[in-house]
Amino acid sequence: MSGNPGNSLRALSPTPPERGSFPLDHDNECVTQMQKYLNCMKLVGNENAPNCRLLAKEYLRCRMDHKLMDRDDWNHLGLPRDIGEKDDKTTAAEHKDERYFGEGK
Prior knowledge:
Organism: Maudiozyma barnettii
Distance between the termini: 79 Å
Number of helices: 3
Protein name: Similar to Saccharomyces cerevisiae YLL018C-A COX19 Protein required for cytochrome c oxidase assembly, located in the cytosol and mitochondrial intermembrane space
Family: Belongs to the COX19 family.
Order of helices and strands: HHH
Function: Required for the assembly of mitochondrial cytochrome c oxidase.
Keywords: Cytoplasm, Disulfide bond
Shape: globular
């Protein structure tokens, strides 16, 4: 008996990882940020605490900076934006206001 149900010899075709799956950090480039986040989660009993979310953001930023994941908007990742950071919609709306009301608003 072969270990193949139906005795069909189909070739397995690899599929790319789904969005949200991360390549492994083989070089341990973000291990410090990961450990800080995991320790925080352990301290708060795996609750969604604001301080742990900030550590998660640091970890994800490290992964983005080291090309271990694609860059994405923080809102798409469920995290707050950095202070002073604006999205494209806000910027476009502000430019629209400037056209009609002048830069001084």
